Amino acid sequence: QVQLVESGGGLVQAGGSLRLSCAASGRTFSGYTMGWFRQAPGKEREFVAAISWSGGSTYYTDSVKGRFTISRDNAKNTVYLQMNSLEPEDTAVYYCAADHLSIATMILKGFPAYEYDYWGQGTQVTVSS
């Protein structure tokens, strides 16, 4: 059993930055591939970024490459999403997720949401133009 709690969302102007945090508790945090998803009103939940168990490998959806950075601190049981150059299209509820599979396996699978074992409650990010 793993509990995930996101924080750091809010309202920001286009071009601004936010850093999301996801605090994990329960079973060993370092044993999970961690990821961020987002869901806008009327749209399906989409993959944003993932990071391997050690933090040595990351993967991003094309729309956020060069703008977002995912990182993790296993000693603090926390994963982060640094979001720069935010755009109105980034507006969504952002969810933290944990998966027992390796990031290599998830890359092959295409990061489907159904493969993730645990989810946070989400944090709202709103980007104004």
Structure, explained:
With 129 residues, this protein is mainly beta. Helix content is 5%, strand content 49%. The protein has one helix and eleven strands. It has one helix spanning 103-109, and strands at residues 2-7, 10-13, 18-26, 33-39, 46-51, 58-60, 68-73, 78-83, 92-99, 118-119, 123-128. Strands 2, 4, 5, 6, 9, 10 and 11 form a seven-stranded mixed beta sheet that branches. A hairpin with a 4-residue loop joins strand 7 and strand 8 (78-83). The longest helix has 7 residues, at 103-109. It is globular, with a radius of gyration of 14 Å. The mean pLDDT is 95.
Structural class: mainly beta
Low-confidence stretches are none
Shape, per Cα inertia axes: globular
Query: Average pLDDT, to the nearest integer?
Result: 95
CA-based gyration radius: 14 Å
The topology string of helices and strands comes to: EEEEEEEEEHEE
The percent range for strand residues is: over 45%
Largest beta-sheet characterization: 7 strands, mixed
- Overall helicity: under 10%
DSSP, total strands: 11
Number of H/I helices: 1
Terminal Cα span: 40 Å
Describe what is shown at a glance:
The protein has 129 residues and is mainly beta. 5% of the residues lie in helices and 49% in strands.
